[in-house]
Amino acid sequence: MSDTTFPTGGGWQFRQPQTQWVNPAAMIGKSASVEAIRKHRLANPAITAKHQLSTDPKAIERELIAFQQARGALPPEQMPASFFAHSSSLPARVSQAAADIRIAAQGTGVILDWLTSGGAPVAQELANKRAAICVGCPKNVDGSWFLTTAAEVIKSTLEARKDLTLVTPSDAALKSCDVCKCINRLKVWCPLSHIVAKTKAEILSAFPAQCWVASRDA
Amino acid sequence: MKVCVAYTVVSNGPISDQYASRFVATWHEYPGGVEADLLIICNGGPLPLSLSLIFAPLHAQMFPRPNTPGFDLDGYSDAARGPAKDYDALVCLGESVHFHRDGWLKRLTEAWLKTGPGLYGPFASNLVRPHMNTTAFCTSPLLLQRCQISTRDRYSWEHGANSFWRWVSGHGMPVRLVTWDGEWEPKLWRMPQNVLWRGDQSNCLMWCNHVDRWRDAAPGLKATWSRGADAPFR
């Protein structure tokens, strides 16, 4: 766990039972907490010696983690920092925009990764079929503000691929996918195997049943 | 006044994408109110593609650098010597910083224009020692260049006996907590309502992980925490 993440319920809490001392640096960070405990023990040499308390930072860090585990703020094994839930006082639409920006970046990354790695597009017939499905899909929507730049990035990347001419009869009606936030005009050309391999599972599972990604081009 | 906003992102941080997308969404939703260039300090080198694309709508300049022991503080210091060296003011923002109201940057620059180059920030407390939190602060790149206090010990740099804010103040320059309703000298940092770890914290120009954690803590813990923050100035 990094020094910028905190166990739930008050951070790096610690109480030295022999002195009733409580760590004042619990919400400053793990390193600061280790140092505070060490200083407290060094400042109380008699008690430290009597109870054989360690002043070694590594040992103190282990004690600190064990303390969190004992109070249920950390699981027995350390977990990635993402264990603490993000809550927010922001309006729902702003929190939603933040989530959508992350999904859009991931979706744009899938297409860019394909384009820049020299990937070949799917056959014209398959792209046409996919495009027709997208046009009839309720998730084919106008993109938000943050998709404008993504489209520009893809456009400039596409210009470097002189070998590609990616046009379907449905292009004028293709917008952005409300699930993956991808630019549909390009996504319909991307090989399914690449999309499936590079898209997060939670997004893959959110495509509607009629979607060509969900049906795996069936 | 030329202003550079430097935002820290950890290149392979476990939840960097969550922080970054919240920053981008709130940057767009709540404009700073004055013109500024945005610099993304990429601690740990160039960002992975999907993380860098989060910032694409903001047309920011990327500043990839190694993740050194001083973490964010080293990033600000390098920026002050590098891409941000010609700006009048450098606004240094940690990864969890995000905005909740229009005009946050305008407030910082208003304070600066009133009292001159120094150190201005939205968060301050007396926990451990009186200090301005380095999660977010605005200063001159020149001051960051000239200050010889080592950033290796980040906590000492922030709230040690010889911290950056004391160094700035010791050189006769203003150090102010800036809120929506005023600018506060160090001895008055814990006077205003709804600042960090008090009330609904709405008087903070921006929010960060410290704001979130206190808001979500149990009442008893919040009280203990606030007592520490409100300890006498010394």
Give a written overview of the molecule.
The complex is a heterodimer of chains A (218) and B (234). Chain A has nine helices and four strands, in the order E-E-H-H-H-H-H-E-H-E-H-H-H. Chain A is mainly α. Chain A is 46% helix and 4% strand. Chain A has two domains: 66 residues; 113 residues, no CATH class. About 4% of the residues of chain A have low confidence. The two termini of chain A are 44 Å apart. In chain A, the strands form two sheets. Chain A has a two-stranded antiparallel sheet. Chain B is an alpha/beta fold and 234 residues long. Chain B has one domain: Spore Coat Polysaccharide Biosynthesis Protein SpsA, Chain A (Alpha-Beta Complex), CATH 3.90.550. In chain B, a hairpin with a 5-residue loop joins strand 6 and strand 7. Chain B is globular and about 45 Å long. Classes of the chains: A mainly alpha (218), B alpha/beta (234). At the A-B interface, helix 1, helix 4 and helix 6 of A face helix 1, helix 2, helix 8 and helix 9 of B.
> How many structurally independent domains of chain B?
1
Walk across the major sheet of chain A and give the strand order.
Answer: 1-2
Query: Mean pLDDT score of chain A, rounded?
Result: 85
Q: Give the distance, in angstroms, between the N- and C-terminal Cα atoms of chain B.
A: 34 Å
Report the CATH C-level class of chain B.
Answer: Alpha Beta
